[in-house]
Design goal:
Helix content: over 70%
Shape: flat
Structural class: mainly alpha
Distance between the termini: 56 Å
Strand content: under 5%
Radius of gyration: 18 Å
Number of helices: 4
Number of strands: 0
Length: 99
């Protein structure tokens, strides 16, 4: 795949993602975050594949950075989702878990 085509695909994906997310009501962002963690996992797999196919040192560095950022994004998404779900539990359930 040529660089211009790859750049076009990235720009198209970014524009499409922005247009979709911008139209989501604020109240739905919390439930959508849980579903978006799946997408972060796919991004992580893609970064690992890119790192595995890297031949030169700059490609390996970029691939490694992609894997680190993708992993951090996925893990952070799950942590934030878990904390948000804790907010919706009844107060009696929170006390039982901490005891």
């Amino acid at each position: 795949m040529e660089g211009v085509i790859a750049l076009y695909i990235v720009m198209l994906a970014a524009f499409t993602g922005y247009e979709i997310i911008a139209r989501v009501p604020v109240i739905l962002h919390t439930p959508l975050m849980s579903g978006s963690n799946f997408v972060h996992g796919i991004v992580l797999v893609g970064a690992m594949v890119a790192l595995g196919r890297a031949d030169t040192v700059p490609e390996q560095v970029i691939g490694f950075v992609g894997v680190v950022l993708g992993a951090g994004n996925a893990v952070g998404g799950y942590v934030v989702t878990e904390r948000m779900l804790q907010m919706f539990k009844a107060s009696g359930q929170k006390k039982k878990e901490s005891a």
